[in-house]
Amino acid sequence: MAATVRLGDGLDVSPLGFGGMALTPVYGEVDPGDALRTLHHAVDSGVSFIDTADIYGGGSNEELIAQLLKERRDEVQLATKFGLVGTPADGYTDIRGDAGYIRQAVDHSLQRLGTDVIDLYYMHRRDLRVPIVETVEAMAELVQQGKVKHLGLSEVTAQELEEASAVHPIAAVQSEWSIWSRDVERNVVPAAAALGVGVPYSPLGRGFLTGTIDPSKLGEKDFRRRIPRFAPDAASANQAVVDTVQAVADELDATPAQVALAWLLAQGRRLGLPVVPIPGTRKTHRIDENLGALSLDLTPAQLDALAEASDAVVGSRSADPNWVSEGRE
Q: Which tens digit of pLDDT belongs to each residue from 96-109?
């Protein structure tokens, strides 16, 4: 595994990150002990870029990661986010990007995380009531105060990224990007490539691309039930994408998850963007599996087959298109 990947603003992170949301009840109940063991295994395996947010588990995910940081803060590049009000499991009630809220949110996150500084602080979603310049100005104050080292944005458009970057360097843009979520390649990815920033979230299609998810059996509180492409008719049509991923995996004696991640890494190289996917999992052996993608090479024919499959995806990736960059482009 390569030592590090450099994102924008000189931020060096492990070539594969870990998305902490999976270690909350968003996909069902989680045993805290198992969750902490999973985090330690990730760091033991070289995955040092840990991503969380203040709303994951209503703050409990930050508190969980605090237990890891207590012993291993120097080994971790820590990212967290502000802006969404509510929880993924119960639903969101607001988006806040005003300066007063940001100052309050960062202090709460620092307290829950038990640390003096956050390596990468993201605006989780865009508050359309507040000019993005004002939001980033407030975030930049946190850098000046030493509470935050680098700034990030999530689900912004190319124009919003350019406006934000004029205020302060942006280290990373976190967008949903995978074989079945490629809308960001139209505008966001080219803009991010010019700045050297890129952190794809949900690189495994919220688990769908692994071939292990049956949308008809999702729990009542599983937030994927609210995503249009997980609806019965759409999910049935989208199974064709999973079938293609599985076929490529069979050719390479790999797993679908490894193929999906390898595709994303290859796509980043093709488009000139440093890409650090942040798949999440509750199981330690999935971390080992995901790391295998770093040494997996896809042939041109396999890349073409996966790209063709992605063109047939049915359903939006968000219940409210305005919550993601696609709806505002």
A: 999 999 999 999 99
